[in-house]
């Protein structure tokens, strides 16, 4: 249990609760859920520019990372087709992957196919079911994809000023504006309470909020004097109690509750908002293909990690279809902006390609 680990090392309840947020980020779990300690480890492993466990912003926004990867690929001769949805994986008579068929009917032939989509989309939607073992299909169907995350992107016309550390008169960003700001994290009991509400189908009445202001470090993201604020919030259930839909009314009611919480820490925040984009778990699934809205393509619980990700006997990036590989967050070692699953899958695919 994460709570036990934190109790061993720390005394301050606000510090423990703030650290605990990284153990439940993207997970329908509380700090008291068995196995939650691993998710914290996952978030602090690795390094950034020699600093162990450090995280960073991508200059130009997260899309700039995708662009950097794309430019590196095209420089090596790759051809990238954006906005071209895949209909299904093309199989030969011998059952091997031979490319993909786009939804417009275009066939793209290749000796290998690597899928960065989730295991559910890859194997349940894009692969002919009769070509897959029944036990494998059942395992993919059983992956826990519950997600508590609602992401809210906000545009503001002034820098938030927090009661705990008011802004300077010149309105310039202070050190805390350039970090991850955790709200409603005064105690781990608050996180557990928020989790419990969501398990009963109700958005948390006091949500866990991780607030970042990337424009404080990268001014080009917003006009002069304005800022973009990224709110990573939980817990919100994928399915609301009473089968209520996540319609505009429900979205806005939850966002208003989040903004009320921020207002209590930073008076004037609500008045500074000039635009917001609310992405609930169903929105994240519909727009980005995240099963259940899960940012990791599936829970990072101990029963869905290591040799069991995405399924026992298939953690090595190969699939039951020869020539078809899984290289996204649903593969080992899981989610996070680190590229480990893609790099590992590429190494395996290259080794197989040399033998074709």
UniProtKB/TrEMBL annotation:
Record keywords, A-Z: FAD, Flavoprotein
CC per GO annotation: mitochondrial matrix
UniProt function note: Probable oxidoreductase that may play a role as regulator of mitochondrial function.
Q: Which family does it belong to?
A: Belongs to the carotenoid/retinoid oxidoreductase family.
Q: Where in the cell is it found?
A: Mitochondrion matrix
Q: What is its main location?
A: mitochondrion
Q: Does the keyword Protein biosynthesis apply?
A: no
Q: What is this protein called?
A: Pyridine nucleotide-disulfide oxidoreductase domain-containing protein 2
How far does the signal peptide extend, from start to end residue? none
> Gene encoding this polypeptide?
Pyroxd2
* Listed InterPro entries: Amino_oxidase (IPR002937), FAD/NAD-bd_sf (IPR036188)
GO MF entries: oxidoreductase activity
Gene3D superfamilies in UniProt: FAD/NAD(P)-binding domain
Question: Organism, per UniProt?
Answer: Lophotis ruficrista
- Assembly and partners? Interacts with COX5B; this interaction may contribute to localize PYROXD2 to the inner face of the inner mitochondrial membrane.
Ranges for domain Amine oxidase come to 49-162
